[in-house]
Design goal:
The structure is a single chain. With 176 residues, this protein is of the alpha+beta class. The chain is 37% helix and 28% strand. The chain has one domain: Gcn5-related N-acetyltransferase (GNAT) (Aminopeptidase, 3-Layer(aba) Sandwich). A 7-stranded mixed beta sheet has the order 1-2-3-4-5-7-6, sandwiched between helices. Strand 4, helix 3 and strand 5 form a beta-alpha-beta unit. Helix 3 runs antiparallel to helix 5. The chain starts with 6 loop residues before the first strand and ends with a helix.
């Protein structure tokens, strides 16, 4: 629970329809329903949803990462377009990183479209650094992806940073 009217919880098969609806709203159908079923069933996936009981759209956002050895590979981070620029992406990314840290994972990585400047800014705010570029990574238009990394999730410095983010996010979400 980040604030009184937001809740982040693990997604399950019962959420499948709202997951696909959110995918349509954010990405126009990035993943198939079968792909989401596999994610939900995989013991290596942590799939979180951001909910608000005060919203007509119950699932406001979703985020997922795969645990691969000591790494959290973030595969999805999506906030419904109606709720952009309210700190919800930060809350969800914080929750993914906290979950990864709690699982004992040592670093996080992800790919992001080179044109997605709002997402790149969000990840940089959380300390992600550019580690490389994948040419033609996105099949829909051949766009390149930046590979971003965040190390040291188990270091004491990162744990204190998590606590600072929790406070900042709580304050920002209360203002929203």
């Amino acid at each position: 629970m980040i604030s009184l009217d937001l809740e982040i919880q693990s997604l399950t098969q019962e959420h499948l329809n709202v997951i696909v609806e959110l995918d349509q709203a954010c990405f126009g159908g990035l993943w198939t329903i079968d792909a989401y079923k596999r994610e939900l069933d995989s013991p290596n996936s942590d799939f979180l949803g951001l909910f608000s009981p005060l919203s007509s759209s119950q699932l406001l956002g979703m985020g997922c990462f795969w645990s691969i050895l000591e790494e959290a590979h973030i595969t999805i981070l999506a906030i419904h377009p109606q709720y952009h620029r309210q700190g919800l992406g930060q809350a969800l990314l914080y929750s993914l990183l906290k979950t990864a840290s709690d699982r004992g994972l040592e670093r996080a990585t992800l790919e992001v479209r080179v044109s997605n400047q709002p997402a790149i800014s969000l990840y940089q705010k959380f300390g992600f650094k550019t580690a490389g570029r994948r040419r033609g990574y996105y099949q829909d238009n051949g766009e390149d992806a930046l590979v971003l990394w965040l190390s040291d999730l188990q270091k004491p410095d990162f744990q204190s940073t998590l606590q600072q983010w929790q406070q900042i996010l709580g304050d920002r979400l209360i203002q929203s």
